[in-house]
Q: What sequence folds into this?
């Protein structure tokens, strides 16, 4: 379970998240949508532990993970985060990018995601040798290989063709089902939204609007 209790975060005079209260239960998926700059990515970063709240608390599985001035390390949260851009290490191969951060570099999960995401033939390439769609698959594989309990996805499939989006959505939903945790998915795409969850929450000016 992921919980935010009256969480706020500002960058200078800009209130990116304002008094955000949200609960996503185990096994539940929600879609977060709204205009660019409304605070969606900030909420995900607060959950992942990449930002500290100015006030309020973030709880993961019933334990406080963030409060003002204190953060549990992101790697200790069992949360996987797929960013808007693939953010791959340019000096690492596909295989090295996916293995990065894994305790067991030869894990079964590594081999599994290579197959599921059709990356076996690309594992020795470098990021600058990949198409945009291939890079997004590698970014997703890197997250799923760590087998996180909870998933945060920030427009992970933008600018992909229809077949690629449908294929990756199936992988995401299967990973969510297997993990049994919470899924928060940010998108502007109506078809993606409908595939992920009937529960959609609009965000505007840093606030959640039910």
A:
């Amino acid at each position: 379970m992921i919980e935010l209790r009256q969480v706020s975060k500002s960058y200078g005079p800009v209130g990116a998240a304002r008094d955000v209260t949200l609960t996503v239960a185990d096994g539940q998926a929600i879609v977060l949508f709204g205009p660019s700059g409304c605070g969606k990515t900030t909420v995900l970063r607060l959950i992942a532990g990449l930002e500290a709240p100015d006030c309020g608390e973030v709880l993961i599985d019933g334990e406080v993970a963030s409060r003002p001035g204190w953060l549990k390390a992101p790697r200790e949260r069992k949360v996987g985060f797929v960013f808007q851009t693939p953010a791959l290490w340019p000096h690492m191969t596909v295989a090295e990018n996916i293995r990065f951060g894994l305790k067991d570099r030869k894990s079964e999960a590594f081999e599994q995601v290579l197959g599921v995401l059709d990356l076996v033939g690309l594992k020795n390439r470098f990021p600058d040798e990949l198409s945009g769609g291939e890079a997004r698959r590698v970014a997703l594989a890197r997250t799923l290989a760590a087998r996180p309990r909870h998933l945060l996805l920030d427009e992970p499939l933008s600018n992909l063709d229809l077949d690629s989006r449908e294929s990756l959505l199936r992988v995401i939903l299967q990973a969510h089902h297997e993990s049994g945790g919470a899924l928060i998915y940010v998108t502007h795409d109506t078809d993606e939204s409908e595939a992920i969850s009937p529960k959609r929450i609009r965000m505007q000016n840093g606030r959640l609007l039910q």
